[in-house]
Amino acid sequence: MTVVHHQAGDGIDEFIPVRKDDIIEALIESGALASEAEREEFRFLCRRLEAIYHYEYFGLLERLHRGYYYFGPDVAPHAAMDRETVERGYADLLQSLDQVLKDASFVELPHDHIADAHRRRALLRVEVKASLDDFREVRFYRRGRHVEQVEIREWYGLRRRKIEVEVYDDVVLIVAMKSTAELASKRQLRALERRNIRPGSVLLKYFRNVASSDLKALFPNVRVVMSNLDKLVLGVPALIGGIPILLNIYATISVLYLVVGYYLGHAAAIHDKDMKTALAALSGLAALGAFVARQWVRYQRQALLYRTELADNIYYRNVNNNAGIFDYLVGSAEEQECKEVWLAYHFLHVAPSPPTADELDGRIEAWLRETFGVDLDFKVDDALARLAALGLLKRDGERLFVSPLAGAAAQLHAAWNRLFPAENRATPL
Q1: Nearest Cα to Cα of residue 378 among 7, 85, 79, 13
Q2: Distance CA 374, CA 261 (A)
Q3: 339 or 11: whose pLDDT is higher?
Q4: Theoretical Cys-Cys bridge with 402: which of 81, 348, 366, 383, CB 3.0 to 4.6 Å?
Q5: Does any domain span residue 427?
Q6: What letter would DSSP give residue 409?
């Protein structure tokens, strides 16, 4: 399997796929910070920023857990929650999820993109169907992508060819189920009961390394259906083998009725040759039953193989589910914020002259490309907004600069103290 960097599609990703510690050490080793004391001050500044963002995102994590409590699939609906309260909680939950996903550099995928990708499916050989009518709302988010060159089999292994497939590194699926009142039929309610899904719940799924053409296979109501080729492979032999049996039965069925009528008292007598013909008809019926049973077993076996392939395809890509994904997403968002602000502060601090936002953006992207070999669209506006909120960013027209390390440390000290009431404040960082 060959992996190549992706350049086409809906733009370059904003995700920085580098560890925080590696970012800090690479910035220090670049030599732009002159003395050991200055390097230590920069390390300490990064840790202060990390502590502030950790506290802020902890609040978001608690908000997500509180908001999801009444929408988890394993929790019975609260009797005191009226429709207005449910709707308000649902809107707040989706807003919080959308915020943390975008902070973690996830991008929401439109439904027409998913439908178009499924029509170009490649890795998953089976045909799948999933109805959106079963759900109140469905959202897909993806982060990071690459192109893999894979070999696929066609015509039951008789033909092999290599293709390039776009693969998403991380995929988050949000599925809001309809409430009991919104379900159109008892069939939908029974289907949810079979899968142990509570009406009105919100399902959260986290997957990794999913081909863009296989997104539809991640739906909770996905089902395997036979392709036209499979129907031909199973149907044509059934038709060819079944017609002679039916013709033989048709030729003797009238005699079989005559024999049955005799034993029921409706016919006066039967000849020996009629009895032989009737026995042949019974043998034909038995053969037809055996043939139908054999074809049904073949159909079920093929369907089972496809369901197994579908289950394996999803199982080995599923990372986490429901409330379990909150800690990972919040931690990832916090890490992204830290890396973006560290980079923006460092390159403003060491700049020989105050740059513009575009110049800063270009320098950071070039440094990441040269140092780690990653191509991305740095979120310079977000990073500058964060620095400004902390009081670290200064502007002179379009030119940008930041407080020196000593002054920045004092400003972060004040920002940390503002997070707590004075009477409850612990020893500052």
Answers
A1: 13
A2: 85
A3: 339
A4: 348
A5: no
A6: H
Rounded Cα distance between 139 and 152, Å, is 29
Helices 20-29 and 357-372 pack at an angle, to 10 degrees, of: 100
Same-domain pairing of 330 and 393: yes
Q: How far apart are the first and last CA of the chain?
A: 48
Separation in Å, CA 119 to CA 113, 157, 165, 177, 215: 10, 21, 13, 25, 11
- 267 with 208, same domain? no
Structure tokens at 234: 């199973």
Query: Residue 160's Cα: distance from chain center in Å?
Result: 28
Q: Do 337 and 381 have their domain in common?
A: yes
Q: What is the DSSP string of 133-179?
A: GGEEEEEEEEEEEEEEEEEEEETTTTEEEEEEEEEEEEEEEEEEEPP
Tell me the mean pLDDT in the region 228-252. 58
**Tokens encoding 416:** 């940390």
Mean pLDDT over the full length of the chain = 78
Question: Of the candidates 258, 302, 305, which has an alpha carbon nearest to the alpha carbon of residue 279?
Answer: 258
Count of structural domains within the chain: 3
Which residues make Cβ contacts (< 8 Å) with residue 269, sequence separation at least 6? 262
Instruction: Quickly tell me which residue has 């996903």 as its tokens.
Output: 101
205 closest CA partner among 120, 147, 135? 135
Query: Is 218 in contact with 207 (CB distance < 8 Å)?
Result: yes
Residue 173 covered by a domain: yes
Residue 383: the pLDDT is: 95
In this prediction, residue 357 carries a pLDDT of 96
The sign of the dihedral angle between the CA atoms of 115, 119, 121, 126 is positive
76 within domain boundaries: yes
User: What is the tens place of the pLDDT at every residue in 160-204?
Assistant: 767 777 889 999 999 998 887 777 667 777 766 676 678 888 999
Cα–Cα dist 334/58, whole Å: 9
Same domain? 334 vs 215: no
The structure tokens listed for 231 are 């129907």
Q: State how far the Cα of 366 lies from the Cα of 387, in Å rounded to an integer.
A: 21
- The domain containing residue 185 runs over which residues? 68-227
Same domain, 384 and 273: no
Q: Name the residue among 211, 212, 205 with its Cα closest to residue 110.
A: 212
Helix, strand or coil, per DSSP, at residue 202: strand
| Domain edge (last residue) among 227, 258, 283 | 227
